[in-house]
Amino acid sequence: MTLTSYAVFEDEKIITYLPGQDSDIGKHCFKLRHLFIWNKSSKRRTCGVAWTSNIEISTVECCRAILSRWGASENTFKHTLERHPLHYHPGFKLIKSDNQEIKNPLIKEKDKLIKGYKTKVGKLYKKLANSKDVLNKDGSPRQNSVKERIKKEIQEHEYKLKILKQEKNEIPERINVSSLENYKSLNPDCFAFAFVRNPWDRVVSTYFYLKNGGDREEDREDVERYLPYDNFRSFVLDGFKAGKIFNQLHFRPQYQWLSKDGNLVVDSIGRFENLQNNFSRFCRLFRIPNYKLPHLNKTRREYFRNYYDADTWEVIYLAYRKDVELFGDDPRY
Predict the structure, then answer these.
(1) Given the DSSP bridges, would you call strands 193-196 and 268-271 parallel, antiparallel or unpaired?
(2) What distances in angstroms separate CA 145 from CA 120, 130, 148, 183, one per listed residue?
């Protein structure tokens, strides 16, 4: 941060949620951390709300995150510092969408280049206006004079500017980044990582998670559609027969998200079974604050191997064989 001096305060803000007419969820209230930041130099104040779950983050750390958020700015504050586990959102709504479109980042790159060339051309025209004519004995302009060299340079830059504008017009304004492959193709220099989970453990966890109601209305609907079985064994033996179960997002094989033509499209893979240690390693790699990850959506159940016999183990192996081979899980029962 800069040398500017700040004072920070925290209060509690109660938010009331009013669902729509078609919602099964009733009106309810929840509490957020209400943070105030006072700039002692400008005598101005900004504030924000934060939800940190059971992560222990102090008032100062939360306010530092607001001041240091990526690429955001206000009339009073604009700072850049290390990345923080909190993210800044001015307000958002979660919707189910198969088409995740964003503004094409290539347009931003072209705009940056166009702006650069425009600046150069503008400066060259100023130089041209102040340069003197140098003539040959016959009265023609001397080709190696400063003025003539500036004219040629202007022509070259204006031609490049024209090409850049044409290229920009040919780029689609919005693109779909619903797959990691699409995103990596647009950001080839970014470091992409993912976490994968043992498929036998994942299936048990997902089964009980959905049977307990999940956390969305779609989850509850999917229980009736994909899990109309009395027990886990029946679910595995009958539910995986037709392959329809893979239409349910939580049961989709992991390789479909993370590979193309059998090759990984991420730079590094972490294991869910070693989640905290792997997460800490990535934090050190990116030089961002590390903290203990909370265990959310935890289900009460036995060790995952206790739910399998030889037959059900084989069914899951065949269903997720590509995951097993690509991510190195032990296929033995």
Answers:
(1) parallel
(2) 20, 13, 5, 49
CA dihedral over 222, 293, 204, 272, signed as positive or negative: positive
Q: What is the mean pLDDT of residues 238-266?
A: 86
DSSP tag of 320: T
Which two three-digit tokens encode residue 57? Answer: 């983050």
Q: What is the DSSP string of 28-84?
A: EEEEEEEEEEEETTTTEEEEEEE--TT----HHHHHHHHHT-TT---SS-----S--
Query: Which amino acid type is present at position 103?
Result: K
What is the DSSP pairing of strand 263-264 with strand 259-260? antiparallel
Two tokens at 154?
A: 């202007």
Residue 15, beta-bridge partner list: 30
φ/ψ of 156, rounded to 5, equals -65, -45
pLDDT per residue as tens digits for the range 273-321: 999 999 998 888 888 888 888 887 777 889 999 999 999 999 999 999 9
**pTM for this predicted structure:** 0.49
Q: Which helix (H) or strand (E) holds 106?
A: helix 105-130
H helix and E strand count, the chain: 11, 9
- What span, in angstroms and rounded, lies between the C-alpha atoms of 10 and 60? 9
- Cα torsion at 223, 228, 230, 235 (round to 10°)? -90
Long-range contacts of 155-160 (CB under 8 A, 24+ apart): 157/117, 157/120, 157/121, 157/124, 158/121, 160/117
Residue pair 270/198 in contact by the 8 Å Cβ criterion: no
* DSSP strands (E only) in the chain: 6-17, 28-39, 44-50, 101-103, 174-176, 193-196, 259-260, 263-264, 268-271
What pLDDT, on the 0 to 100 scale, is given for residue 74?
A: 41
